[in-house]
Design a protein that fits this description.
- By secondary structure, this protein is α+β, with helices and mostly antiparallel strands.
- The protein folds into 2 domains: about 150 residues, 60s Ribosomal Protein L30, Chain: A (2-Layer Sandwich); about 170 residues, Phosphoribosyl-aminoimidazole Synthetase, Chain A, domain 2.
- The protein is about 30% helix and about 25% strand.
- The chain has 10 helices and 13 strands.
- The strands form 3 sheets. Strands 8-10-7-11-9-12-13 form a 7-stranded mixed β-sheet, sandwiched between helices.
- It is globular, with a radius of gyration of 21 Å.
- The relative contact order is 0.15.
- The chain binds adenosine-5'-diphosphate (ADP) and magnesium ion.
- The site of adenosine-5'-diphosphate has 13 residues, from helix 1, strand 4 and strand 5.
């Protein structure tokens, strides 16, 4: 990937030189970051707020493929997927740590690309990079991000608060990241068979971006606050709508009914899924990596968000014995099954 570019051996800098080089231009923006990179531990102070912490581990070959994921996008996405978990608690994300395992064959320029993406995400979402760890890896690239944030105790939204009669809502649209991935996989296969053929991503920009450059929905957290809505339950859509709905229902000990026709699917996602012989609804239900927010609200709050075009009401919560159901466009009742992406199903 970096064959024609400048290559600086990481060993020239040494571990401490590398950490300094990668982190010295990151700004600290939050009062809560008392001490960031440079000591044995970072020091944070959140006064009377509840502190939220979430970690993700991304492994080359399992979670990403460097054949088509640009390193800058990978850095950006590694941060985003993590912030999304803080937003899913209705919290404000403020800091991250980044731990990275890199092959000694990786040039410095490659690691710089990853940190450019991390910096972009930090700037865009107002996040301080406050630490991490750096090591060599013999088994591909490893990135682990921990995100830290805060919320008032009364504002935190768990997965287990859904009540019978609550409305099930989801932000944005679904299935795009999965369909985008199918296009990238297809082009990779074509490239492997004939390296002279350029990838054909024409007209697929939105879904490719959904896969390579997802953005956590901090704007939805802000919007809910503005509308004075505290969801009764919330989760981010990382593994597919069906799987996330079932997490909310299981943890809340409830059932639900959703309507296929209400599931928001972008036209490009829809058409591309069809082109590939996939059912767009199945892509939305089981695809994953959309990083939208799925939440339940009290019926009393309906009037406050009913006109918001970025939020779809897809169904409602029922009692536990009714199970999780989807009414199809032809009015057939289906039992929802979580066939979400499973890292252990290799
Ligand atoms: P230690 O030996 O105590 O683990 P390190 O030398 O690994 O310390 O780290 C020194 C400082 O640099 C610490 O503040 C650590 O959090 C930070 N750091 C190390 N690696 C990274 C990284 N990849 N990204 C951001 N900060 C890092
Ligand atoms: Mg260390």
């Amino acid at each position: 990937m970096f064959e024609n570019k400048e290559r600086t051996d990481i060993a020239e800098l040494g571990e401490f030189g590398l950490i300094k080089h990668l982190t010295e231009n990151f700004k600290i923006r939050h009062e809560s970051s008392i001490k960031g990179v440079g000591d044995d531990a970072a020091v944070l102070s959140f006064k009377d707020k509840e502190v939220l912490i979430s970690t993700d581990l991304l492994l080359e070959g399992i979670h990403f493929d460097l054949a088509y994921v640009p390193l800058m996008h990978l850095g950006f996405k590694a941060v985003q997927v993590n912030l999304s978990d803080i937003y899913a608690m209705n919290g404000i994300a403020t800091q991250i740590t980044v731990s990275i395992g890199i092959s000694s064959k990786f040039p410095l320029e490659a690691v710089e690309e990853i940190y450019k993406g991390i910096d972009l995400a930090c700037n865009k979402f107002n996040i301080d990079l406050i630490g991490g760890d750096t090591s060599t890896s013999k088994q591909g690239l490893v990135i682990s991000v921990t995100s830290i944030g805060y919320a008032e105790k009364k504002d935190i939204v768990y997965r287990n608060g859904a009540q019978e009669g609550d409305l099930l809502c989801v932000s944005g649209d679904l299935g795009g990241a999965y369909v985008g991935l199918q296009i990238l996989e297809r082009e990779k296969q074509i490239f492997l068979e004939n390296p002279n053929i350029q990838p054909d991503l024409e007209g697929k920009d939105y879904i490719i971006e959904r896969q390579l450059k997802p953005e956590g929905r901090r704007d939805i957290v802000d919007l809910l606050a503005q509308m004075e809505i505290i969801p009764t339950a919330m989760i981010d859509v990382s593994d597919g709508l069906a799987s996330e709905i079932m997490h909310i229902c299981q943890q809340s000990e409830k059932g639900c009914t959703i309507y296929e026709e209400k599931i928001p699917i972008d036209p490009m996602t829809y058409e591309t899924a069809r082109e590939l012989g996939l059912d767009p609804t199945v892509c939305a239900l089981n695809g994953g990596e959309d990083y939208e927010l799925l939440f339940t609200i009290k019926q009393d709050d309906y009037a406050k968000l009913k006109n918001d075009l970025d939020i779809s009401i897809i169904g409602h919560i029922t009692d536990k014995n009714s199970g999780c159901k989807m009414i199809s466009k032809s009015s057939v009742v289906h039992e929802l099954k979580a066939q979400g992406w499973n890292a252990f199903k290799l």
